[in-house]
TrEMBL record, chain A:
One of its GO terms (biological process) is cytochrome c biosynthetic process. One of its GO terms (molecular function) is heme transmembrane transporter activity. Required for the export of heme to the periplasm for the biogenesis of c-type cytochromes. NCBIfam families: ccmB (TIGR01190). Keywords: Cell inner membrane, Cell membrane, Cytochrome c-type biogenesis, Membrane, Transmembrane, Transmembrane helix, Transport. One of its GO terms (cellular component) is plasma membrane. It comes from the Bacteria. The chain crosses the membrane at residues 31-47, 59-77, 97-123, 135-159, 165-188, 200-226. PANTHER family: CYTOCHROME C BIOGENESIS B-RELATED, HEME EXPORTER PROTEIN B. Its main location: membrane. This is Heme exporter protein B. It is found in: Cell inner membrane. Belongs to the CcmB/CycW/HelB family.
From TrEMBL, chain B:
One of its GO terms (biological process) is cytochrome complex assembly. One of its GO terms (molecular function) is ATP binding. Residues 11-211 form the ABC transporter domain. The lineage of its organism: Bacteria, Pseudomonadati, Pseudomonadota, Gammaproteobacteria, Lysobacterales. Pfam families: ABC_tran. This is Heme exporter protein A. Keywords: ATP-binding, Cytochrome c-type biogenesis, Membrane, Nucleotide-binding, Translocase, Transport. NCBIfam families: ccmA, PRK13538.1. It comes from the Bacteria.
Length: 228, 211
């Protein structure tokens, strides 16, 4: 029996998740509003002194975006597990890892991309110099998919447990440390006029590794979660 | 049980048993299912009907005994796409319409040449409700929105867990009609049911589950 074309299956799944996210666009706005509010709190807490804010701007934006992504993370596979869609996906004659990669991509597009879009606004509020802005965006473009992929593994691993939201945060945040170090390192290097390519290259390398391995790990973890 | 038929049975279980934390769920169970054969899996609540179907679908691993698919040792990849599993969770997205849900299923599993999606939705009794979000449909209509996959997706073995639940009399007849048509073109199906339903009219093959 001929299997349905892979591209059509990928497109069908990606389209489904994007349409679902669009029909619940209120959920997309939530992490964005959260990031906006958190970033606004810093000048209130630390005072509006421009030199101080300028120094912490890059790090604050990165951590804020990371925390905002965490909010939406545990919903990545939850709906599919609850309504049986995941069973149908696992049993489909398609490579499960690739299908899950599509789901992770859809999740990144609906949660991380809006955050990246408002990142210049957040950075501007904190007086990040314009010269460092492209580096911040580049670092976010590499760091957020990395977080989505790492998060997806943990979501898949905790899929069987109830109330996994807090557990997920506790497991993911330590893994975020190197991502934050490299991303914030690149931004602060750019702010000081130093070469920033090396930390960005590290992020890129980690992303390449995660792109290949994370969907495979997700597939294995979700199979185990269903086999229980 | 003949050991060497001209064509091996589609599915064969030998001394299949399943344990959950060392508690036996069912088994040992022996049965064969040939192409064109429909069997009713019977048993009380908790007798392991759903577990059996999940094993045969490949969602649970075989703990004990042997499972053969088309005469060869069962392998997950060999039967993917040739098996259609319909469980308690229908695998429908509430925010999508029946038509959109069906399009996703067809994208993943492929589809038969006949009928087209619109025709399939009409035949399953969802005419006029194709574009309604599934969460607004009644329980019976949701079931039909899931059953419409049977019409469209090209699987040989159907594993249907309680397909009659929530269906009205015409719905039950519809499922029976689908099963008869499927058997006539060489498909096979395992159907679980805990209640007395007018299954295919005649006297079907029965697989009795014991806890």
């Amino acid at each position: 029996m001929s299997r349905p074309p892979l591209a059509a299956a990928c497109a069908a799944l990606l389209r489904r998740d994007l349409v679902l996210a669009w029909r619940r666009r209120g959920d997309i706005a939530m992490p964005v509003l959260y990031a906006l509010i958190v970033a606004t709190l810093f000048p209130f807490a630390l005072g509006p002194e421009e030199a101080l804010l300028q120094r912490i701007a890059g790090g604050v934006v990165l951590v804020t975006v990371l925390l905002a992504m965490l909010l939406a993370l545990d919903a990545m596979f939850r709906g599919d597990i609850e309504d049986g869609s995941l069973e149908q996906l696992v049993l489909a004659p398609q490579p499960l890892a690739l299908m899950l990669a599509m789901k992770i991509l859809a999740h990144w597009i609906t949660t991380a991309l809006p955050l990246i879009v408002i990142a210049p606004l957040l950075a501007g509020m904190l007086h990040l110099p314009g010269a460092a802005m492209p580096v911040l965006l580049l670092a976010l473009l590499l760091a957020t998919p990395l977080l989505s992929l790492l998060g997806a593994i943990l979501v898949a691993l905790t899929a069987g447990t109830r109330r996994s939201g807090m557990l997920l945060a506790l497991m993911l945040l330590p893994l975020c440390v190197p991502v934050v170090i490299f991303a914030a390192g690149a931004v602060s290097a750019a702010q000081q006029g130093l070469p920033w390519l090396a930390p960005v290259a590290w992020l890129g390398a980690a992303l390449a590794l995660a792109l290949v391995l994370a969907p495979l790990a997700c597939a294995a973890a979700l199979r185990i979660a269903l086999d229980a | 049980m003949t050991a060497s038929p001209a064509r091996p049975a589609l599915l064969e279980a030998r001394a299949l048993a399943f344990y959950r934390q060392d508690e036996p769920v069912f088994g040992p169970l022996d049965f064969q299912l040939a192409e064109g054969e429909i069997a009713l899996v019977e048993g009380d609540n908790g007798s392991g009907k759903t577990t059996l179907l999940r094993i045969l679908a490949g969602l649970l691993h075989v703990e004990e005994g042997e499972l053969r698919w088309r005469g060869e040792a069962w392998q997950r990849d060999a039967q993917l796409g040739d098996v259609l599993f319909l469980g308690h969770h229908l695998g429908l997205k509430g925010d999508l319409s029946a038509r959109e849900n069906l399009a996703v299923a067809a994208g993943l599993y492929g589809r038969r040449d006949e009928p087209g999606p619109a025709d399939a939705l009409r035949r399953i009794g969802l005419a006029g409700y194709e574009d309604e979000p599934v969460r607004r449909l009644s329980a019976g209509q949701k079931k039909r929105a899931a059953l419409v996959r049977l019409l469209l997706l090209p699987a040989t073995l159907w594993l249907l867990d309680e397909p009659y639940a929530n269906l009205d009399r015409t719905g039950i007849e519809l499922v029976n009609g689908l099963l008869a048509q499927h058997a006539a073109r060489g498909g096979a199906a395992l159907v679980t049911s805990h209640g007395a339903v007018s299954f295919l009219g005649g006297e079907p093959r029965r697989i009795r589950m014991h806890a």
